[in-house]
Structure formats: C-alpha cells, structure tokens
Design a protein that fits this description.
homodimer, alpha/beta, Quinone Oxidoreductase, Chain A, domain 1, Rossmann fold, 7-stranded mixed sheet, 6-stranded parallel sheet, 10 helices, 15 strands, 26% strand, globular
Chain lengths: 338, 338
C-alpha cells in the first residue's frame, strides 16, 4: 500500500484563519479507474482567493466544508495511467488538493512541458504560466486596456498576481506604481522589478505618500485588495479611468467583510470610471496567446516571475496563514516532492 | 426698472434640505452687454443631482455657496438682445438659475423650437429633450448596451430619468422592471408606461418582491439611487451584466453619505460585472442623434414624457425638497411665467 498524506479542513475559520483549522491524516493512495491517472503531487500553489471559499458564502472558489481535503492546484507527475493520452511520467497540472496522491480523469489534467518556462522549474506552471500569470495578463490587457504613457496602480503589488501585472504594465509603456506592505517589498518592486514607485500601506504617512506617488492621477487601478486602497484609488482616478477588479484580499480573512468603499457609485460618476470584475477562466480559449507572449517576455528577461517557497506538504496551512498576513513575495509554492 | 425675483441659497443644509435653506429677494433685472442677451425665465427644471452640489464636496454640479442664486436650467424667452444670432423673441434653454431674469452670452444659450416636441410645451426641452432624456438615452444605449430579450432594472423608475429609461428599454425589446416608492408610482409604471413589473421599495416585503420580479436575474441595472437597491441588484446580476451608474439619489439629501454597498468589488468579480459611471455632457456632440430618435418615438407614442409641475418661482424650494423626498413623477418643472 502507498500512503497518501492529506491535509483536511478540520473546521471552517471563525474570524482569522489559523493553522489549527487544518488537520493531517494519512490514508491509502487511490487507484485510478478507466480513463484515469494517478498523480503524485510535486508542488502546490496557494492563492489568497481560496480564503474566500472558506467564508461559506458564494464565491468563485466554491464551498469547502469541514472534513474535505483542502483544494488547490498542483504540478504533478503521472505515476499510473489508464489512458494513452497521459502516459506514466507525464508532467501535469491538476486540481490535486493538499495531498500526496490524487486521481483524475486523464482528459482533465493538462500536460505541461518539463522546462516550466525558461526557469527550468516545473513550479512556474503554477505561477507565471498558471492562473497568476494568466490573471495578470487578461486582467491588465483585456479589462484594463493600458496605453503607452498611462499611469497604472497595482495593489498587493508584490503578490502572486500583482508583481506580474506591474511588470507587464511596464512592458506596455506605462508608469507603474505599486502598493505593498513593508519597506522590503517596496524596495523589491522599484529595485528589482522595474516599478516606477512603490508605496507602503503600513506607513504612518500612507495617504500623503500615496497621493505624492500619483501626481497625474490614475488611468488604470488593478485592484487585488479592495478595502482602503480601493477607497483611496477611487478618489484619485483620472476621468475615463478603469478599475480592474481582480481580488479582495483585504476582506478574505474574516467572517464579516466590511462594507464597500464610500464613493461607489458617486465617484464612478464624477470621474466616469469603469469598474469591472473578471475571472480568468472566461479567457480559457485564449490561454495559448498569453502563454506565448509571457514566455517571450520571460526569456527576454523583461518579465521576472518570483516564487516564494515553503518546503513540505505539512507546511501548507502555515504557508496559507502567512500568505493572508501578507507574507509572500510572488507566487506562494509548497513543495511536496521532487 | 424691471424687478427680478431671485431665490438665493440662504444657508447650506446640515442634514436634510429644507425650504428655509432658501430666501427670496428682489433686485433690479440685469442689462445685457455686448454679445449678450437678457432672458425671461419661463420654466425651471429641478433635478436630484443638484442636491449633491449642496454637500460642499466634489460633484459634477459644482460648489454652490450661501448668498448665491440657486442654479438651474430653464427655458426662457429672449427679451433684449445685443447679438443677431439670438434675436428678441427667441425661445432658448439657458442656465438661468432660480430667478425671473438672467443675462447670458448669446453663444451660450441654445435656441430651441417653439413646439417643444410634439407635446407643444416648451418645458419638454427641460425633460425628454433636455438633460433627463439625453441622460436616459446615452446611459441606456451607450453604457448599458441593451440587447433584445435582456432584463433591465431601473431604480427611481418613476423619476425624471428613470421613466424614460424604462420606456426606451422597452423600445429596445427588453423586459423592464422598475423600482419606485409607493403603489401609485408602481401602477403608473406598469399601467401607463409599459413596464413589465414594478417593485415598491417601501413595501415591507420588498426583498422578496424584488427577487420574484427578477426570476432571470439582471442584465442591465440602470442605477439612479445607489444605496440599498444597488446592494440588492448586485446580488442578482447575471454573469457579464452591466451596472450603469447615473445617480445616487439615496445619498444626496444628507451631509453624511453612507458607505458603499457590500459586494463591491467582490460580487463584481464573481458575476464579472461592469459598473460604469457616466455624465451626459461627455456626449454633447451626439445630442442631435438622440434628439432625432427621441422625437420619433414621442411622435409615434412609444415614448411618453411625464412632467410634474409646480406653479410659481416662489415654489421652487418646496418643489426641490419634495423631489428629494421622492414626490415627483417624471420631470419636475417649476413654471415661472408664460
């Protein structure tokens, strides 16, 4: 028998998520049926949006319940196969969840190349070539519609999506301002990732610094957080500006989300602003376009994907709690096996 | 000397607007200079958006102050002219304010035809052919983009803009649901103006009735109110729906507007909703297109413009306060002279 470690939801969080909301158990690995494959998890990615599902209310992330294996996307290796389309040894991306082994219909896993992009790390399929990169790409280019010389503001700018959005906006010829928590992240944005300015939302002078970083106001606000940064951005939008609603990380880690920002809808009218939500899955048919362009940018050194790694499946709850507290830089990865 | 009655802002309102915030004074009528015309006010229109300016904060309506003549758009007759382009006797639309006489540069008044549309009433230049009709037209067709068979929800549906939006959405082949205050308004919408359903927001069963009136959810919400109706609409949008942000009447008559609705931006993401503010003035170059189409609809009996008239300049403050309390059906007009 092959052992399969699983991290299950022990209880839904009341208030902030804690590692104690999860429990580790060991069961027997599943056996693939007709047309199925057995996948060995190599690495899992964790995104803040998964916290929304744990609120028990409507969310695109579905409705996890106590007793279930925690969901999550992984890169994995096919260890047993009953389908010629995904032979043993294939590297795949699949919704494995937080466990060592999972079984999927072969048609539902996506076979990916070994290189994992130019970085040579399969985990890039969970970052720049995964949901994060695709979200940045379609949110910025299709919803935001940047034009050269415009000002783009990004919140959670050192985060999994934000750090890619900012770099893509620079590729589009925009002036890019990031909002992030803490001086270290802000330095990373301006010194390593090419942002024109970065503002620390934890600074006591945040409001003033925010205003000073945006002397020409905002054409596009790529909103990963909602909350106070959204409220501040609404007051500094340019006439005809766009707000790309991508995530609401400021409101995920609670059972009682705050009301919406003042200024909705009043300031949307005054500044003729378009505020638009999107989900990357709606763009699935165009993923190859995005993968092609992102790979070019990565290989040319124009787009630098960052990863932030925890080692070991048992660290996943801690990695998630830390992410919600703003601990990550780039895509949070939990390595499970090599 | 010609007497000019003026209604001035005596004090900016704290809390709700009251007639006592205004005072009547009589001064000498102004004399037009070079290139100017003297206009005799015939009728004024009052819109809820004017209340926003009295909050003293940023608003498209500008910043009125105590001691100023209250602003407002009027139809007027040119009584003296120093410009051949606008001869004595011309019927014009101009920003007269709440007074009998005003002077304007001739180039800044708009000469309109005597018929005032098929209704034969010059005051229609303040309603269906004025800002209200143009706002309904460009907001619905350009921002909302209705398609046949879609469901359109309108708030303040018996109001100056709303009653035209709903009828235009019917012309576009949509199913139209209105939200209005009181049974009488709701009956007007369904029995006279062709709405498919109307929901009374003052009903104790409002939430249930709102839900039942929208079994197929909402493609387009034309939002004149913000507040609770916006909150309710956000929860019932269809994937890919549009929210046209036109006004925030629920938040105008106060010095302390409420926070924005829960669900912004979270529900915008889940339902991939586009929420967009607009100001009709941005469409000025296309007004002739709208006038042409609206006149056709009015003359064909497909678009029925409603007016709601107070007689006498001195009634303007009362007419405004009543409007803010939801008293009007259609465009509120104050007749000053004939």
């Amino acid at each position: 028998m092959t052992e399969n470690r699983q991290i299950i939801i022990d209880s839904l969080p009341k208030g902030r998520l804690e590692p104690g909301n999860y429990a580790l158990r060991t069961v027997e690995a599943p056996v693939p049926g007709d047309g199925e494959v057995l996948c060995r998890t190599l690495a899992i990615t964790i995104g803040a949006g998964q916290r929304a599902g744990l609120q028990g209310s409507a969310s695109y992330a579905g409705a996890p319940r106590a007793g279930m294996v925690m969901g999550g996307t992984a890169v994995a290796r096919v260890e047993a196969s009953n389908d010629g389309g995904a032979p043993v040894g294939s590297l795949v991306v699949c919704p494995a969840g937080w466990q060592d082994y999972s079984v999927h219909q072969a048609a539902k896993v996506r076979i990916v190349d070994e290189r994992g992009g130019s970085g040579g790390d399969p985990a890039h399929h969970l970052g720049v070539y995964g949901t994060n990169g695709l979200t940045a790409y379609f949110g910025l280019f299709d919803v935001g519609e940047p034009r050269e010389g415009q000002t783009v503001l990004v919140s959670a700018a050192a985060g999994s999506v934000g750090h890619l959005v900012g770099q893509m906006a620079k590729i589009a010829g925009c002036r890019v301002v990031g909002v992030a928590g803490g001086e270290a992240k802000c330095r990373l944005l301006t010194e390593e990732l090419g942002f024109d300015a970065a503002v620390d939302y934890k600074s006591p002078n945040f409001r003033l610094e925010f205003k000073e970083a945006l002397p020409e106001r905002i054409d596009i606000y790529f909103d990963n957080t909602g909350g106070e940064v959204l409220g501040g951005a609404l007051r500094r939008m340019k006439v005809g500006g766009r707000i790309v609603c991508c995530g609401v990380v400021s409101q995920y880690d609670t059972s009682n989300p705050a009301p919406g920002p003042r200024g909705v809808p009043g300031l949307l009218i005054n500044f003729r602003v378009r505020m638009e939500g999107f989900l990357v899955f709606d763009y699935a048919k165009r993923y190859p376009e995005a993968w092609g362009r992102m790979r070019e940018w990565v290989e040319a050194g124009k787009l630098v994907p960052k990863q932030d790694v925890f080692e070991g499946l048992e660290k996943a709850p801690e990695a998630f709690v830390d992410l919600l507290a703003g601990g990550n830089v780039g895509t949070r990865i939990v390595r499970v096996a090599s």
